[in-house]
Every structure is written in structure tokens, then in C-alpha cells.
Amino acid sequence: xxxxxxxxxxxxxxxxxxxxxxxxxxxxxxxxxxxxxxxxxxxxxxxxxxxxxxxxxxxxxxxxxxxxxxxxxxxxxxxxxxxxxxxxxxxxxxxxxxxxxxxxxxxxxxxxxxxxxxxxxxxxxxxxxxxxxxxxxxxxxxxxxxxxxxxxxxxxxxxxxxxxxxxxxxxxxxxx
Length: 176
Known about the structure:
Elements: H1 4-22, H2 29-35, H3 40-46, H4 50-71, H5 80-90, H6 97-111, H7 115-135, H8 141-163, H9 167-173
Helix pairs in contact: 1-4, 4-7, 5-8, 6-7, 7-8, 8-9
């Protein structure tokens, strides 16, 4: 018989799949429970409330995208002007889009004042900045942190513009 920890982890995996496919728009307890074949009361057995559930799911999704990013890691750190276009090219793939679409939803909910999504979005964004800093060939730590912030801004802006159908503007911004 599966332990409560294993069952909770399994629920998080299934919920992560569902939210990546469907987004956060209908992420209330009953639809989430139905999507994973359980009841809303059972979800509340494993999570104290919806916020804890969403945070756990977003943490799992963040772990997944981190694995994908690590698989595309360059063998050695690169300058920002090389890393940014390479990363943006990778992010055009169908593999990345569900994560990027979800990132836009988290950002929109945060911008709307939801403290849960603000906290989760900040954690995701800071994680990306840390990952970017580890990828950048910049000797000075302060300059590397600045370049990592610029990488996040370039990626975020590109994702937003692509979601609006402005791929040509993104392509125009980078020398290829």
C-alpha cells in the first residue's frame, strides 16, 4: 500500500500534468480533483488548502523545467550575447511552450495582486536568474548577476511577444 507521502507525490505529478495542459484558469479544487480521479475532500486530506496544493504543483513544474534546462546546458559558460539567442531558440520548441504559457499565467495572476502567485512567480524568476548566472561566462560576480537579470528580461520579453504573435519582432531583436 502506498504511503501518504507517495500518494501526495503522485497527486502532485498528475496535477502538474493537468495544469501544464489546461493552465490555471480552472484550477479550483473540484475540477483539479476530477482531473486526477479523486474528490476535493481527498485533495484537502493531502494538502491543507488550495494554496499549498498550487504551490506544491508549481514547485514540481519548476523542477521539471529545470531538468529540461539542464539538458540544454552548454558544456561551458557562454557570453550573454551567445547564451540568450541559443536559449530563445530552444524555447521555441513545443517542449517548452506549456511551461512558458504557465509562466505567463503566473505573471498575470501576480500582476492582478494574488499573493500566492506573486510568491511562486518570484521563486521561479529568482531560480531562473540563478540558473542563468551559472551559464554565463562573466568573471565578476556583480556583472554576472546583472547579465543573468538581463537574460531573464530578454527571455520574459520574448515569451510575452511570442504569445502575442510578434515572433518577427523577437527575431528582429537578435542577430542570427
